[in-house]
Amino acid sequence: MSPAGARADQECLRAITARIDQRNWSDHRDGIDRDGSTIIEGLLSADECDALSASYDTDPPFRKTVVMARHNFGRGEYRYFKYPLPEIIDALRTALYRHLAPIANAWQSALGNDERFPAELQQLTEACHGAGQLRPTPLLLRYGADDYNCLHQDLYGEFVFPLQVAILLSRPGEEFSGGEFILTEQRPRMQSRAEVVPLDKGDAVVFPVNVRPRPGTRGYYRVNMRHGVSRVRSGQRLTAGIIFHDAT
C-alpha cells in the first residue's frame, strides 16, 4: 500500500473511533436498560458497509465458515474473522468496548456478581486467552432469499462479556426485503416477549448476549435474552457481528 493509501486508512479508522466516542452514551445506556437494546444510527457509512460486504468473498481474513442449515441454526452462512482482525473491525471492537464496559459492570452489580470487566478490550482479550478462549469471534453473516437465523445466544466459553453489537451492511427495501432483527425476552413465570429492532444500512444495534437485569419489586432480577433474524424475502442481507469475548 502506498503511503497516501495508508494515511487515508488511518484517517478512516480515526474517524470511526471519533464517531463512536461522540455518541450520547448516557442515552444509549438508558435505552438498553429500558428496552433491552439500543440503536446507534449511522455507525458506518454506505461505502464502509460496502467494503465490508465485499470482503466476505475474500478468504484470507477468515478462520471459519459456517453453513447454518448443516447445524439446524437456520439458513444462510457466516464467516469468523481470524487474528489479526481487519483494521476496521478491530477499531470498531476496541472503541465500542470502552463505552460498553461501564454498562456491563453496572449490570454485574445489579445482578449481584462480584466480577468486573476491565476498561480496555486488550485486557478482556488477555482474560479470555487465560481461560483458554483463544479464537476471535467477530464475524460477517450473509443471507439470501428464504434464509433466516434461529433464536440463539452467542456463548463461546465460560468467560462471557454480556453485550454485543450487530451492524446492518445492506439497505432494507432496496438490497433486501424481510430479514428483520428480532430480540426475545423471557421473564420468570411469564411468556416470552418479542421485539423487532428497525435498522437501516450502517446502523448498529447493541443488545445482550444472554441475560440482562430488570428492576422488580424486590430489586433486580435476571431475564433471558435471545436474538435472531426473520426470513429474508428477497435480495441479499449482510451483517457484521461484533462480539467481545473470544471462543474456546
Roughly how many Å is the radius of gyration? 18 Å
CATH topology: Jelly Rolls
Structural class: alpha+beta
What is the average per-residue confidence, as pLDDT, rounded to a whole number?
93
DSSP strand content: 25-35%
Strand arrangement within the widest β-sheet reads 1-11-7-15-5-4-2
| Main β sheet profile | 7 strands, antiparallel
- Calculate the terminal CA-CA distance, rounded to whole Å: 34 Å
Helix content: 25-40%
For this structure, what is the CATH homologous superfamily?
q2cbj1_9rhob like domain
Question: How would you explain this protein's 3D organization?
Answer:
By secondary structure, this protein is of the alpha+beta class. The protein has one domain (3-242): Jelly Rolls (Sandwich), CATH 2.60.120.620. The chain is 29% helix and 31% strand. It has five helices and 15 strands. The strands form three sheets. It has a seven-stranded antiparallel sheet. Strands 3, 6, 9, 10, 12 and 13 form a six-stranded antiparallel sheet that branches. Strands 8-14 form a two-stranded antiparallel ribbon. A hairpin with a 6-residue loop joins β9 and β10. α1 packs parallel to α4 (87-110). The longest helix is centred in the middle third of the chain and has 24 residues, at 87-110. The chain starts with a helix and ends in a 6-residue tail after the last strand.
Defining key terms:
248 residues; globular; single chain; seven-stranded antiparallel beta sheet; six-stranded antiparallel beta sheet; Jelly Rolls; 5 helices; alpha+beta
Short description, anyone?
The chain is α+β, with helices and mostly antiparallel strands. The chain has one domain: Jelly Rolls.
